[in-house]
Amino acid sequence: MVSGSTRVKKVVLPLTVLVITAGILYGLSYFKPEVKKRAQRPEPALQVETITAVSGDYQTIFPSRGLINPQIESTLAAEVSGTVVAVSEHFRKGARFQQGDWLITIDPRDYQVEVKLAQANLNQAQLAQEEEQARADQALRDWKRLAGSLPNASEPPDLVLRKPQLAAAEAELVSAQAQLEKAKLDLERTQLRAPFDGFVLAQSADLGHYLSPGNAVAELAGSVLEVSLPISASWRSMLDWGAFQDQNADASQVLLSTEQRSQSLMWSARIVRYSGTVDGQSRQIQLIAEVTPNQKQTTQWPLLPGDFVTANIEGKVLSNVITLPRQALVDGGYVWKVVEQRLQKQAVGVIWRDENVVVIRDGIQVGEEINTTPLGNVITGTKVTVMLRDGQDLQNKPQRDVENGLKAKNSIAVPQSNDDGELRADL
After folding, report:
1. Share of the chain above pLDDT 70, in %
2. Total-model pTM
3. Lower CB density within 10 Å: C or N end of the chain?
């Protein structure tokens, strides 16, 4: 039988444990440390540079390159046979000449004799023609005298009037005249002259050489140089074809340059024609630019055939467009606008782009702020801080304004020290 004290213990002991546990919990809740609330972190912002959209005109430039070649290349050949007896100072490799300049002389003595013989034959033919003309006139007079005594006289036959003989004499005269002209022409051809302005590329004859008709004497090149410049056929709509076809246009449609010992040499040129087809493989067309030697160039060094040049070709002027740096364009047809320090992605209409700029017709308005800083994976609404706007440092602007203000004050005020050792400016 369970005693009374045992029953008391069974009741009191659990109650005691509960009371102690409740006391401990209350004490912990009453004396717990106060939790301090953390301050809300400011939203991070990307530092960017921007440019203000401005409308204006843009001159399109097409880059290209090519090799300089003379516009005219020809072979000078002998037209008569003989020995070379004289050579001009212009008839040397690299020598320059003007149209009509004498280059070489073939021995003319045989041809001078031919001219004299042809002249003598002409004189004889003229005399024979005159004698035959006199006989024909006399025959006509005789026939008229005889016909006057005959009642039914008919027209005299040609043989009576010596018309065939006169025609033969006149033909001999014409032949003699032609032979004299041919002899004079052969004599003239003993003097080989420059057919155009240019220079000697290669010389293949010299003093003492015997030449036959058709023998090559020299390779000549014209002084007018040109270069074939390939451009993409898709750029045709951006070319100013009217200016190319205007022969009176200023010769500055193309700027050619080449590097010589780290020095850039430049020449102006103009488009004179273009290829008639589009290349099937490269999908390019060839623009032919002409450089003439009489232009006032910016350098003393001449442009020579074989020079490799780079070219900037002027295209159409795009009006009322917005020009941005190339890095402002993202994903091929978008820009990041900055609106109230937040990024906003905007689709734009691109009408021209190169490695430096992108030209936009629509999609953004004049005065809008466009990001030019390359960004990673960002989304619309990302907060930004503009560090530079249109090249102006916005972060240091207040300090610069203060410094500029102090400089302005110091220029009209005399600094003095007060009792505390501080500087003040009395105006």
Report:
1. 80
2. 0.66
3. N
